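Design a sequence for this backbone.
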């Protein structure tokens, strides 16, 4: 079985990257950022369920892709496994209203925290990394598809 970059994989990383990069807002306006996300978590409206469902579906898709290609994975598919397990646990902990997780989230969204910039900057850097990875995979997949097309034309 050949290693393949599936059509959705670059978009997966770019979507998660953009999700993490939106945290720039938290560096610009702590109060508005915190108010928005705490409101989303407390109100649990349509946006909350669409976002949580989308994140869960993408994580499950990534983990299944990792498992399916267990003996023939790229290094970056480990992100599906470890990142997916973390996000699924996070979604479970939020949905189940686990007390220790709620305390952690309140600490993370404490606008007066001395760790605010470090915490959110680390998420932003992660977002930048996976966004660049997604773009790199998109270009790599495009080159591979073009090469395969040339080979098919040459064979005919």
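Sequence:
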């Amino acid at each position: 079985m050949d290693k393949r970059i599936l059509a959705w994989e670059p978009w997966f990383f770019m979507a998660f990257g953009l999700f993490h990069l939106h945290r720039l807002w938290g560096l610009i306006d702590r109060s508005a950022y915190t108010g928005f996300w705490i409101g989303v978590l407390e109100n649990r409206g349509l946006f909350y369920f669409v976002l949580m469902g989308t994140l869960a579906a993408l994580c499950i898709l990534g983990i299944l892709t990792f498992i399916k290609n267990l003996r023939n994975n790229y290094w970056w598919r480990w992100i599906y496994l470890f990142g997916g397990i973390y996000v699924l646990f996070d979604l479970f902990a939020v949905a189940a209203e686990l007390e220790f997780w709620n305390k952690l989230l309140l600490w993370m969204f404490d606008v007066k925290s001395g760790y605010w910039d470090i915490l959110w900057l680390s998420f932003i850097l992660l977002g930048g990394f996976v966004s660049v990875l997604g773009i790199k995979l998109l270009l790599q997949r495009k080159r591979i598809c073009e090469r395969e097309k040339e080979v098919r034309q040459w064979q005919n």
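The chain has a mean pLDDT of 94.
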